[in-house]
Amino acid sequence: xxxxxxxxxxxxxxxxxxxxxxxxxxxxxxxxxxxxxxxxxxxxxxxxxxxxxxxxxxxxxxxxxxxxxxxxxxxxxxxxxxxxxxxxxxxxxxxxxxxxxxxxxxxxxxxxxxxxxxxxxxxxxxxxxxxxxxxxxxxxxxxxxxxxxxxxxxxxxxxxxxxxxxxxxxxxxxxxxxxxxxxxxxxxxxxxxxxxxxxxxxxxxxxxxxxxxxxxxxxxxxxxxxxxxxxxxxxxxxxxxxxxxxxxxxxxxxxxxxxxxxxxxxxxxxxxxxxxxxxxxxxxxxxxxxxxxxxxxxxxxxxxxxxxxxxxxxxxxxxxxxxxxxxxxxxxxxxxx
Length: 337
Known about the structure:
Elements: H1 4-12, H2 16-33, H3 36-39, E1 48-50, E2 53-55, E3 59-61, H4 72-76, E4 82-88, E5 101-104, E6 109-112, H5 121-130, E7 136-141, H6 152-163, E8 169-173, H7 188-209, E9 215-219, H8 225-238, E10 242-245, E11 266-269, H9 273-287, E12 293-296, H10 302-311, E13 315-318, H11 320-325, H12 328-336
Parallel strand pairs: 3-4, 3-13, 4-7, 7-8, 8-9, 9-10, 10-12, 12-13
Antiparallel strand pairs: 1-2, 5-6, 6-11
């Protein structure tokens, strides 16, 4: 029963951040009451093994929708093959001033400059502990906005250590455009240094917990072939377990002339599709199947998802597509595979 086409106009009549909160609360009510079993389509079981983990299907939720892990049960009821929660920082922080979220329906796009607003990693881990979710759960970690860049690795180490026992995999987010200078961690020696520190800590934690939790790196779409190649070589050198391509874009060429085109923040949805696919293809060429790619960016139809998989991805993640198409998109993609 696909009610979303009827509900969407009501949600879109609200301010974007309000609509986001209302939607999550409605999904939570449906999950708690058992209504979700009636309302949402039954998703076929199409297992795939990636990073040594078995996913019940290749369609996941991208980080950013549930930053604090407050809605794990509600979102898992939609039929995702895996969930990624966060981005979470060591300490709680309010994020950027409102308004910080903008819809561009004509372009099937969203601009956000949320700024890692979250309740801190301890809150998120309490939520994970209290949830009954048994599927694949990624925890996406970042740095606090006021941590100096030269101490960024310390924040990622805190996130890695704290999340390790609760996560199926951990994502290192160095590609959000909404934390000042964060993207410089994708460059040269800074990236090499960060990966080296986190990989070494992963090995220590593996021995401590007697369990191997994969590490994935989330990168930006605003990279050229040379930069992508350099990142891919580092991933291979340090044996990182996965790469997520991509985060939101700072480019505005696809929405030129729109009233929100000059708003600061990351652009997601249909306008990022081509560039995100380019990054996936470039990565696939260098990685040659040795490190799996999780594709995110501009997936609004089953055909978009298949394009990403054909480009070299093993899994896909949804965010803006879910806002514009609703839960039916999950079923459409899984059915098409």
